[in-house]
Amino acid sequence: MSYVITIDGPAGAGKSSVAKRTALELGIKYLDTGAIYRAIALILAKSEIKPDNEEFLREALSEIKIELRGSSVLVNDFDVSGEIRTPEVDELASIYSAVPAVREALLSLQQDQEKYGSIVAEGRDVGSVVFPDAKIKFFLTASPEARAKRRYLERINKGKEADYDKILQAIKQRDENDSKREISPLSIPKGAIFLDTSEMNEDEAVNFILEKVKEALKH
Ligand code: DC
User: Fold this and answer.
1) Which pLDDT tens digit goes with each residue over 93-139?
2) Average pLDDT, stretch 15-39?
3) CA–CA gap between residue 150 and residue 143 (Å, rounded)
4) Ligand 1 mean position to 124 CA, how many Å?
């Protein structure tokens, strides 16, 4: 029988790497819902469709085809996987994902992924709204400072420029946007296991999750 594991939490808590590795260890699919929000935000911004223009937005959303192929995201058959990982798209995704029409349009696309087998879904509302009946739910977080430090080191290690204070400020701003929005605010889903990774490395977080999943799968 297929099952769903959800991992929600704020930006930079290590969700992506932990979710990816958990899926790999369990031999199941990884669903990066943030990538879908990023892709849609990118295409809407490129098309100059403002987030407050509800009518235009709905029309545009009905014409956009988003597809997940392995770890790639395709918009109207065009692979945007590389383009969506920039600080500009961080900000755009945070803005457009607060729009009800955008969330509605992306809900069934996310839920449909369950049809293709077991998944580890990662996002902001996957345990509360998208897969409320998931087998096991996690809420992964870390202090804003710990998350900013990770993002900073990630960029430096990739040979990119980075400013710790700016990253910290951007993280706090995104937390504020994601938590205060009216629709699907970032929150701890009912029944989720809370995990603060501020003082943990990735291996420890993955092992913690795998232990809990194995226990849950016995029942
Ligand atoms: O996880 P991420 O940084 O790739 O997410 C990008 C943005 O999309 C972030 O601002 C929150 C939003 N998002 C969301 O609202 N709901 C999700 N399930 C996933 C992401």
Assistant:
1) 999 999 999 999 999 999 999 999 999 999 999 999 999 999 999 99
2) 96
3) 11
4) 6
Per-residue pLDDT tens for 75-84?
Answer: 999 999 999 9
What's the 218 CA to ligand 1 centre distance in angstroms?
Answer: 31
d(CA 58, CA 12): 30
Q: Which atom of ligand 1 is nearest to the CA of 37?
A: 8
CA of residue 217 to ligand 1 center, whole Å:
28
The span from the first CA to the last CA of the chain, in angstroms, equals 12
pTM: 0.92
Return the number of other C-beta atoms located less than 10 Å from residue 55's C-beta: 8
Q: H-helix or E-strand containing 195?
A: strand 193-196
Given a cut of 90, is residue 181 above it in pLDDT?
A: no
Beta bridge partners of 141: 196
Does residue 33 line the site of ligand 1, with CB under 6 A?
yes
- CB of 174 shorter than 6 A to ligand 1: yes
Q: How far is the CA of 133 from the centre of ligand 1 (A)?
A: 20
Residues 126 and 6: beta-carbon distance below 8 Å = yes
Asked if the model's pLDDT at residue 2 lies above 90, the reply is yes
Q: Which atom of ligand 1 is nearest to the CA of 12?
A: 3
Measuring from atom 3 of ligand 1, which residue has the nearest CA? 11
- Using CA atoms, how far apart are residues 166 and 148, in angstroms rounded to an integer? 9
Phi, psi for residue 136 in degrees, rounded to 5 = -150, 140
